[in-house]
Amino acid sequence: MTPLPDTLAAEDADLVSAVDALVARHGSARGELLPLLQDLLADRGEISDLAVQVVADRLGIAPTEVQGVVTFYKFLGTGPRGRHMIRLCHTLSCVMAGARDVATTLETELAIPVGATTPDGAVTLEWANCIGMCATPPALLADAEAFGDLTPERVREIVAAVRAADVPG
Amino acid sequence: MIIRTPLTLASVHPDIGLRVALARTPADVVEQVTRSGIRGRGGAGFPTGLKWRLASEAPAPDGRRHVVCNADEGEPGTFKDRALLSVVPDLVVEGMTIAAWAIGATSGVVYLRGEYVYLRDELESCLARRRAAGLLGNDILGTPGFCFDIHIRLGSGAYVCGEETALLESLEGRRGEPRNRFPYPVVRGLYQAPTIVNNVETLAWVPAVLARGADWFLGIGTPGSSGPKLLSVSGDVARPGVYEFPFGVTVRAVLEASGGEDARAVVVGGASGVCVPASDFSRGISYEDLCTGGAIIVLGPHRDLLDVAENFLEFFVDESCGQCTPCRLGNPVLLEGVRSLKRGECGPERLGELRRLGHTMKDASKCGLGQSSPNFFLSLVDRFGPEISDRVPV
Ligand SMILES: Cc1cc2nc3c(=O)[nH]c(=O)nc-3n(C[C@H](O)[C@H](O)[C@H](O)COP(=O)(O)O)c2cc1C
Ligand code: SF4
Ligand code: FES
What we know:
Chain A is of the alpha+beta class. Chain A has seven helices and six strands, in the order H-H-E-H-H-E-E-H-H-E-E-E-H. Chain B folds into three domains: 211 residues, NADH-ubiquinone oxidoreductase 51kDa subunit (Rossmann fold, 3-Layer(aba) Sandwich), CATH 3.40.50; 79 residues, Ubiquitin-like (UB roll) (Roll), CATH 3.10.20.600; 85 residues, NADH-ubiquinone oxidoreductase 51kDa subunit, iron-sulphur binding domain (de novo design (two linked rop proteins)), CATH 1.20.1440.
């Protein structure tokens, strides 16, 4: 990756001040990289290439170091994603309890396949590995909340609630 | 949260263990923990007292030592740590505080998996409550010079970060790639300082051991595996959930309690574990027999064991950090092998190669992930021979 350019376009100033605010909160130690990136993703909805460069610059490390961390963790990652994340568990206990059927219901409700984002940018649907809800399978995470004992009706309610809470931006 | 048996920990009076500990010398506390025989409840079963002694004796050039609570609970089929963090968070924090006294640590971290972010606020309030009550912070419970505080760090969706050295890398702001284990974290852990990493459940039992005495703990379980153990039971059972049993409990007794008597096989130890056939249901759950962090996944009569192997290997292919070759390349080959077995296209020679590959991965992988990912497949080949050979064309 190229280093941070000396001059930034006006529309990027927003991102830079967001990163600076986070650096002010967490400090610029390397050890704070994960919480910083987690908060950045929550604030901005994505970790862009430029964000990677700005963070690297402020922490005094190479952009590739930051990029390496961003791409390592499934809950981080570069590029745009939905304003809400629905993560459906596809590990054994959930699959044995019908996670594949739940996936079909979700795909129908959201009109996207697993792995995609709705065209309005509201929801990304992903697979997750075991989320610790194996006693009430199938289970999913909708943003920070866990739901188990999923049925088609339950899934429709969850999707409706996620959509109702969405603020298009 | 479904808890199916009364939990001993729910009846342990808070902060008695800590008071007992602070009335003794740190070395005496280590001695008590050692005498109780308690071993790590995260899966590997390392003796907790020994871990603490090594960390307390390791030189700490800048005076720092750390206590890390491993709340990354990512093994498929495990959810007992989530239960403990919800029901008895104070005991987990108290256990960390006792550990800090024992090894001379000044800082602690709870590494909470990102999937459990909904537990964070409650844990933060628990920490705040304890600070206000003088149970964390400076001169804890009026003990001059005993200063210890804890913060919470969230994971970000990486199973391998439950491996203790990957966890430390993650805490230092890096990719969660396991370190070489020499030196061990007890000698050089977080930022090179002596560090103990303990599982949530291990830490939660510590106040009970101090409050009720090492002999109480030793009196439960088997000679090599003292104390009660929490099990996470899921799969084809009528009553899935968290169960407490003394170590040594047989697979059959777990099945009877949870309503899974018609099981054809049981996975003990999650995706890293082994497949136990019905003929072995009289075996016991303990470090010396069927060793597990507590994941019990029950497979009913209609289940295809190769489907299970395929699901687990997909998991490992997805979660391997990719750092070392046996694991990065071996898991996809095992996965393709299981798929070819399912299609009836894996001949006896190929099956033999897959078996040897599995053993090579166990021997040559850098961390526990690649060392245990072949376990389930190998247990099928070894213990379900006729069933597998039915799928092998001659
Ligand atoms: C791939 C992998 C994942 C692990 N995940 C966890 C985990 O989620 N929680 C845990 O306590 N230990 C986990 N462990 C075991 C830890 O490395 C370590 O042994 C444990 O935290 C030590 O605590 P204990 O002695 O109290 O069990 C994992 C190990 C490996 C190899
Ligand atoms: S065994 Fe797998 S997870 Fe462990 S270091 Fe090697 S590649 Fe990474
Ligand atoms: S297998 Fe789906 S939550 Fe554990």
